[in-house]
Design goal:
Helix content is 49%, strand content 16%. The chain is of the alpha/beta class. It is globular. The protein binds cytidine-5'-diphosphate (CDP) (2 copies).
């Protein structure tokens, strides 16, 4: 089990998927569950502060495996919402939804069920601290807010210097503060996490840096390493 945590747009999903593919492991981005629940709450007009109503939506949300075992297809009651959950509207409410205790409890169970017996890289905010505290390897991926915002803007086809680009930066800062400051499972590195900074790296350089951390630790873990 590999826990890959870090703030928004630090590279968790792209780096995590590449690392998982290189090691023959599955990949799961836990943020998909929080985004899917937020999307469903918006669609149904549920108040992001109503914990009981939000938790009641959790069974409607499913994450399914696509090609290569990557858990990336997000389905809400039969509808594929994989693209719809990556919008500014969801960005705006997801941290409020993710701080609700009933939401975290409901999604904790779902995450552990998806992980099962392991053989997986899991990306998130609290994987090393709460979801998988016994993970074989824990990594905290990070980069400056400016670099992360520029990457997120480019990913969405937006000029980082434009008004929309500056809105992405402001939103990332706000989410970093909300996710790191919440009472339950705040986003933070586990005490035994290895920190990897990605400023100035190409994706390939970061993947290589993470593999260099992971491979010796997996070889030393009970069971002797990846598939
Ligand atoms: O893609 P990005 O890194 O910006 O966000 P994400 O990983 O999709 O996560 C979206 C939001 O879900 C975060 O801002 C957190 O509020 C929440 N989240 C969480 O609380 N715990 C996790 N393990 C993963 C995500
Ligand atoms: O999952 P998370 O929100 O942490 O980040 P991501 O969606 O994997 O990465 C955000 C963007 O940064 C993607 O377009 C990546 O290709 C890019 N990236 C990069 O350019 N260099 C890195 N070292 C890591 C990610």
């Amino acid at each position: 089990m590999i826990a890959l945590d870090g703030p928004g747009s630090s590279g968790k999903s792209s780096v995590g998927a590449a690392v998982a593919a290189a090691l023959g492991l599955r990949f799961f981005d836990s943020g998909l569950l929080y985004r899917a629940l937020s999307w469903t709450a918006i669609a149904r007009g549920v108040d992001p502060a109503d914990g009981a109503a939000l938790a009641a939506l959790a069974p409607s949300v499913a994450v399914e495996a696509g090609v290569g075992g990557r858990l990336e297809r997000v389905v809400v009651e039969g509808r594929d919402v994989s693209a719809a959950i990556r919008t500014p509207e969801v960005d705006r409410v997801v941290s409020a939804v993710a701080r609700v205790p009933q939401v975290r409890a409901a999604l904790l169970v779902r995450q552990r069920a998806l992980v099962g017996r392991g053989g997986i890289v899991v990306a998130g905010r609290d994987i090393g601290t709460v979801v998988l505290p016994d993970a074989d390897v824990k990594i905290w991926l990070d980069a400056s807010t400016e670099v992360r915002a520029a990457r997120r803007a480019e990913e969405r086809g937006i000029d980082p210097g434009s008004v929309a680009g500056r809105t992405i930066l402001a939103d990332l800062l706000r989410r970093d503060g909300a996710d790191g400051g919440r009472a339950i499972a705040p986003a933070r590195p586990a005490d035994d996490a290895v920190h990897v900074r990605t400023d100035g790296n190409t994706l390939e350089q970061t993947v290589a840096a993470v593999l260099a951390v992971v491979m010796p630790r997996l070889a030393a873990a009970p069971g002797g390493g990846a598939g």
